[in-house]
Amino acid sequence: MKKTLAAFLLSCAFPFAFADGENLPHKTDDRNAPVVYFTRDVSSDGLLKVYDALNQKLTGKVGIKVSFGGPDEQVLNPELLRGLVKKTGGTMFDGNGLSSNRWTADMNLKYAKAHGFTDVGNCIMVSDSDPINLPVKNGYLLKYARTGKEFADFDTLISVFRVRPHHLPAFDGNIKNITLCMANRSGKCILHSGGKDENRYHNTEPETLMKSFADAAKAALDYKKNWAFINVLEDIDSADSCKGVTNLGKIGIIASNDIVALEQCAVDFMIENVNVSESVKSAWKTAHQVGVIEYAEKLGCGSRNYRLVEVK
Predict the structure, then answer these.
(1) H or E stretch covering 159
(2) Phi, psi (5° rounding) for residue 36?
(3) CA 280 to CA 282: how far, in whole Å?
(4) Which residues of the chain have pLDDT under 50?
(5) What is the 3-state secondary structure (H, E, C) of 62-105?
(6) Is 213 strand, coil or helix?
(7) Whole-angstrom distance, CA of residue 69 vs CA of residue 278
(8) What contacts 251, CB < 8 A, 6 or more positions away?
(9) Contact 104/96 with Cβ under 8 angstroms?
(10) 3 φ, ψ to 5°?
(11) Euclidean distance between CA atoms 246 and 256, whole angstroms
């Protein structure tokens, strides 16, 4: 691990800029591939355009999975959700954390208010005292993922995340949003321990964490069938001490009914499409554990190849 991290930090010493051409290696013309809709319009209207392109059927109670964030965290601009919340009547929800400042629902809802989410719509936290288990069928490590009982009340699910490259070791996108971020405190312990401990945090090695995330993603997708996924690709500053890594600015918003296609598209835009050497890209992908996307694909969560359709 130390050698990998050292190599990664060294590789990040090279400055990079956005590539002139679109180097999206998993984009295909195959009509059988899932569609990822893309807009350059990073606004509430832009987000609603790509969401509408998905033609999701709105039934029953709508849950919008977001991350309310913590102090000084680069979170999704809640104003981007205003049109979506108005259209769907959705309730925004998140899970409590293991850190002392995100331990309770009250703590997290204070951050939701501070960041402006409560100004946009109703916000709740999934329960720690009333958990539900989401069975994992034929997974790698987990027998079940765990969240709060509130998740069971939603009939329609929309997951929206501001992708943060070079922010955390584990790939910080929609797979994380419906697994670690959706887990209650006990569920987070399950994920971090590869299913071995429900009560304590474990600093697990990357392979275990990637397989646990893939298992939990499959559990969420199997438990609730009516999902839509949206990734916002914009204005994220590096938080991993990588020298030379720059903010890529407003790339756009992508949406898909296929979470694997969506995550791979995000990686293609934010890593593959950056004008650096292949060895540097490889180091970034290793350090940020993007292998979780391939693990999720192998579990049947979706396809890494996608058709990209721009919505203007």
Answers:
(1) strand 156-162
(2) -115, 120
(3) 5
(4) 1-21, 243
(5) EEEECCCCCCCCCCCCHHHHHHHHHHHCCEEEEECCCCHHHCCH
(6) helix
(7) 33
(8) 40, 233, 234, 269, 270
(9) yes
(10) -65, -40
(11) 27
pTM of the predicted protein model: 0.89
* Structure token digits, residue 189: 């312990």
The pLDDT value recorded for residue 3 is 35
- Token pair listed for 180: 């670690």
* pLDDT at 290 (0 to 100): 85
Beta-carbon-side half-sphere exposure of residue 69 (alpha carbons within 13 Å):
20
Tokens of 172: 């910080």
Encode pLDDT of 234-278 as tens digits.
876 666 665 456 777 789 999 999 999 999 999 999 876 777 777
Distance CA 255, CA 230 (A): 4
Q: What distances in angstroms separate CA 79 from CA 41, 56, 223, one per listed residue?
A: 14, 21, 29
Place of tokens 């990664």: 8
Tokens at residue 12, please?
């990040």
What order do you get walking across the sheet with 35-39 strand by strand?
123-126, 91-95, 62-65, 156-162, 227-233, 252-256, 35-39, 307-310
Residue 179 C-alpha from the chain's centroid: 9
Outline where the chain has alpha helix (H).
Answer: 2-11, 44-53, 82-88, 105-114, 117-120, 174-177, 185-192, 206-223, 259-267, 278-287, 291-298
Picking from 243, 204, 283, 203, the residue whose alpha carbon sits closest to that of residue 8 is 283
Buried b (16+ CB within 10 A) or exposed e, 37-55: bbbebbbbebbbbbbebbe
Residue 278, CB-side half-sphere exposure with 13 Å CA sphere? 2
